[in-house]
Design brief:
It contains 8 helices and 10 strands. It has 260 residues and is an alpha/beta fold. It has an 8-stranded mixed beta sheet with strand order 1-2-4-3-5-6-9-10, with helices on both faces. The longest helix has 17 residues, at 243-259. It is globular, with a radius of gyration of 17 Å. The protein starts with a strand and ends with a helix.
C-alpha cells in the first residue's frame, strides 16, 4: 500500500491510499460517507475484499471530513463529495496502474457519489456498489422528520445542527442549514436508468437515514435487464460496526464480485 496526495479542483489536499496486488485484474475506487474516513471498519471491509479479489484499490479521505484531507466538515456537501471522487479518478487516469472499466463502491454520501458517477459515466464503470445511499434529498428529509421529529425545524431555526463523530469519538461535528438546502437538490432517481452495469445495493434493516424502503425504490428504477441485487442485513443500522454485520457485508460483497 502506498499513500498519495493530490489537490482537488479547489486547491484542497486529498490524501488516500493505493493498494496494488501482485497481479491486478482491475481497478476500484472506494469513498466513505459524510463525516467518515478511509479507515472506517465498513470501508476497510470493502477495500480488503476488493484487494483479495485482485483489484488495485484507491481508498481516500474526501475533503471537508475528519480524515487526513483538508477542508472543514461544515463545508461538506453532496456536490463537493462527488467532485472529490471525480478529481481522484481524473488523477488516477494518468497512473500506470489505472485500468478501465473500474469498480466503484461507497457508503452513504459516498454511495451517492459513486452512483452519480456511474450514472454520468456508464462506459467507464464495470460495476457499482452504493452501500446505503441517500436516494434523494426529498426522501432524506422525510426520513429525518420520521425518525428524528423536530430536528429539521430546530436545524432551520438555529441555522446549525450538531452530532458526535463516530469516526473520531469525542469530536463534535457541525453542519449549517445550507447543507440540507443543497441535499434537497440531490436525486439519484432521475438518472437511475443509466445504471446499466451490475449494481449491488446493501442496507441495514434498522437504517434510519436511508431505510430499506428507499433502497427498494431505487432498485425498482434501475432497468430490469440490469444485473442488480439488493440485500437487507438483519438488525443492522446505517453504519455497520458489529462484527456480525461486517462479516455479512464481507460475504455479500465477495460473492457479488466473484460473479462479475
Amino acid at each position: 500500500m502506498s499513500k498519495f496526495e493530490i489537490k482537488n479542483r479547489y486547491g484542497l489536499k486529498i490524501v488516500g491510499n493505493v493498494s496494488i496486488p501482485e497481479k491486478p485484474t482491475g481497478c476500484a475506487f472506494v469513498l466513505h460517507g459524510l463525516g467518515g474516513m478511509k479507515e472506517n471498519a465498513h470501508i476497510m471491509v470493502i477495500v480488503d475484499v476488493l484487494f483479495s479479489n485482485g483489484y488495485t484499490v484507491v481508498n481516500f479521505d474526501a475533503t471537508n471530513s475528519v480524515g487526513e484531507s483538508e477542508g472543514k466538515y461544515e463545508n461538506a456537501t453532496f456536490v463537493l463529495h462527488y467532485e472529490d471522487l471525480a478529481d481522484v479518478i481524473a488523477w488516477a487516469k494518468s497512473q500506470l496502474w489505472y485500468l478501465e472499466p473500474f469498480i466503484l463502491a461507497g457508503h452513504s454520501m459516498g454511495a451517492d457519489a459513486v452512483a452519480k458517477y456511474a450514472e454520468e459515466h456508464p462506459a467507464e464503470v464495470k460495476a457499482v456498489f452504493p452501500f446505503a445511499p441517500i436516494v434523494s434529498g426529498r426522501l432524506s428529509f422525510e426520513a429525518t422528520e420520521r425518525f428524528e421529529p423536530g430536528k429539521l425545524r430546530k436545524w432551520e431555526e438555529t441555522g446549525w445542527t450538531e452530532r458526535m463523530s463516530r469516526s473520531k469519538p469525542g469530536t463534535v461535528l457541525h453542519l449549517p442549514w445550507a447543507h440540507m438546502e443543497g441535499r434537497l437538490k440531490h436525486d439519484l432517481e432521475t438518472k437511475a436508468t443509466s445504471l446499466t452495469m451490475p449494481v449491488l445495493l446493501v442496507v441495514g434493516e434498522h437504517d434510519g437515514p436511508c431505510p430499506p424502503e428507499h433502497q427498494k425504490l431505487l432498485f425498482d428504477m434501475i432497468p430490469p435487464d440490469t444485473e442488480k441485487e439488493l440485500y437487507i442485513v438483519s438488525r443492522a443500522p446505517h453504519v455497520f460496526v458489529e462484527p456480525e454485520h461486517l462479516d455479512q457485508l464481507r460475504n455479500i460483497f465477495d460473492k457479488w464480485l466473484k460473479q462479475l
